[in-house]
UniProtKB/TrEMBL annotation:
Its cofactor is a divalent metal cation. Residues 180-295 form the Endoribonuclease YicC-like C-terminal domain. It comes from the Bacteria. Belongs to the YicC/YloC family. This is YicC family protein. The lineage of its organism: Bacteria, Pseudomonadati, Pseudomonadota, Alphaproteobacteria, Hyphomicrobiales. It comes from Chelativorans salis. NCBIfam families: YicC/YloC family endoribonuclease. Residues 3-157 form the Endoribonuclease YicC-like N-terminal domain. PANTHER family: UPF0701 PROTEIN YICC.
Length: 295
């Protein structure tokens, strides 16, 4: 499956002799999936099927969907009650002849209640069903376009995230290969720290001294952090390759990256490793920021 961004825009419409319908869809980031619809009066019945269609396509994102409907000729053609119109014309003529009323005009007669009515599609079950089918088909087309837009953006995000993972991997390998982790250097630093303990507490017994030395050695060991960073890089790459709605999982891994880089900095007893850890934190922040845009 392809990666998808949660941002995108789409516009699609269909028309026939009854109506022209157009959907505009806008998608932005969201913790879950929320679809908000703006429907013309009389089309509220489409809310649930439209939301269901959105839910089948996406798992995350705030999606705004606006429907506009322009009635076609078949629904705009007025219906005139000719018999009633003829009666009103006769009455107007009688008033003119008998009472001196002003002559009736065509637009005046047609404006009388009951003479001319616009067809009400909502009262016609067949017409309403056709309108609904047209609107939902147009929505499917708009959702296809929105999916394409989100996938295109997702592909770009995937490239950016791969770059961040490559940088994290390089920094991890630099920390692993740093000269401060060579046995001779580690031994020299331990000896220096142990000597500081002896100078600070001359009466410290030998067993306690060994405990303190072991504690210092453990505290300075960043092997676990390096191994976990390598594992997280491999897991993140696997998720990107799998695609689909992996944003939440990648966000969790971003938190783990951040935790390991913090621990790396706190354990470091060499300026070079601390510098690597700080650079690592900066890259992890960039990685997490971009992950927030993924479905």
């Amino acid at each position: 499956m392809a990666l998808q961004s949660m941002t995108g825009f789409a516009r699609a419409g269909l028309d026939d002799e009854m109506a022209s319908v157009t959907w505009e869809l806008r998608s932005v980031n969201g913790r879950g999936l929320e679809a908000r619809l703006r429907l013309p009066p009389g089309f509220e019945r489409l809310e649930q099927p439209a939301k269901s269609a959105v839910g089948k396509r996406f798992s995350r994102g705030n999606i705004q969907a606006s429907l506009s409907v322009t009635r076609g000729e078949a629904l705009r053609r007025p219906v005139v009650d000719e018999a009633f119109l003829a009666e009103m014309a006769k009455l107007a003529h009688w008033l003119e002849q008998e009472h001196g009323a002003a002559p009736a005009t065509a637009d005046g007669l047609l404006a009388l209640r009951g003479v001319m009515e616009m067809p009400d599609a909502s009262a016609d079950e067949e017409a309403r069903a056709r309108l609904d089918e047209l609107a939902l088909r147009a929505l499917d087309t708009a959702l296809d376009e929105l999916t394409t837009a989100r996938c295109d953006e997702g592909a770009s995000l995937g490239t950016v995230l791969e770059g961040h993972l490559a940088a994290i991997e390089v920094l991890t390998l630099r920390a692993e290969a740093d000269s401060s982790r060579e046995p001779a250097n580690i031994r020299a630093r331990l000896e220096e720290q142990v000597q500081l303990l002896v100078d600070a507490a001359p009466a410290l017994d030998e067993s306690r001294l060994h405990q303190e030395a072991a504690f210092l050695a453990t505290k300075a060991d960043i092997r676990e952090e390096i191994d976990r960073l390598k594992t997280h890089v491999a897991s993140a790459r696997a998720l990107l390759a799998t695609g689909g709605p992996v944003g939440r999982k990648l966000d969790f891994l971003a938190q783990e990256f951040n935790r390991e880089s913090n621990t790396l900095c706190s354990k470091s007893n060499a300026a070079s490793v601390t510098a690597i850890g700080l650079e690592l934190k900066a890259v992890v922040d960039q990685f997490r920021e971009q992950v927030q845009n993924l479905e």
